[in-house]
Predict the structure.
Amino acid sequence: MTAAPHTTCRICRRLLDLPCLSLGSQPLANNLEPTADAALKATRYPLAFTRCLHCALGQLTHVVAPDALFRQYLYTPSQSGVFRSHFAELAGSLARTRSPSRGRASPPPFICDIGSNDGLLLGFMKTLGWRVLGVDPAENLAAAATERGIPTVCGYWGPDAVSRIHSETKGEGADLITASNVLAHTDNWREFFLDVARSLAPNGQFVVEVPDLMTMLRDGTFDLMYHEHLSYPSVTALAKVAHAAELVVVAVVLVPIHGGSLRVTLRRAGGSAKWATDASIDWREVERAWGLLAAPVYDQFANQAKRAAAAVGDAIRGLRGEGKIVCGYSCPAKASTLIHAAGLTAGEIAWISDDNPAKHWRFMPGTAIPILPPDVLVHEPWDVAVIWAWNIADELIRRLPRGKKALVPLPTVRIVET
């Protein structure tokens, strides 16, 4: 299997610039292998970042076939208290402010979550009285969610899911469609948004959460780059593609999840809607003034990323040189990106512990670093644990035994006592 070159912007179709940051060829970050040998032989694909300066949209230069990435998927948000709290807050906010007015004889409001994973958000919405439907291509996750009482279409967002929504709502459409950290996985943005517009009830709303491009560039958190994340959105980019689907931005909020994400609410524009009613105007002006439509901030990000990768590698190799045993705690996809960018191996990282049982006794692709259950943090010797999921570092550090050290790799390397 090969990765297809991506040479034109997903929104405006203009030819993309040459990459401003290349991380070489890397294996698929979430494809944890069952044996060390398979991990060392994992296929690698180019991982490079470019941008469209007309749309303020960061994009990878190659696209891997989605079935290789998503049909069996090991990541679930339910393992983290931070993510459980985030989705509980999101559900409460949606139920308070997005519920349509309905008569007593009307059925409860209907929500569809695109990329619903294990159904965490929909579980909260169901408890709040909503009718729910998930859409997710991962066979293991769709089956598990359905078994838990969250009906889930096993497939990609598209015409089949649109038809299911209209069937479930008797042609009325969804009151609410959500997509949390999934738009970045999508190659065809135009069709994605058009299918959302086709699925919404007349007064329905679309709420999308995406890692914020401006925050990523500012903080140098390049480990958000991996083959699943084809795009790195801004409000400017979202407003452009939404406009083409006759949707308009009505609210934008910056939330802390994933190190800084945009929560953007959209609705049907209507025949008389103008840009003057668009809540993205001020955000787009901030992004323009900050430099998202010009090359220098992207070049600065690339230089910052190279320095950060070198700093992480130097810090860990320095600890090993002192005779310290270095392990890892948490095994998100970003761990793979950072490990390869820093040139680390199983000789420097003894093992990685993770709370997700689906990852246990597997091996990191490309390095064969073993992934073990969390009890090894108590029973096995180690001196410093690298918190690869730095965006929830505080939660993870609290779980570590006292008297040890934790290394948080980004946005800047820091070592803290546990």
Observations:
- Residues 271-276 have pLDDT under 50 and may be disordered.
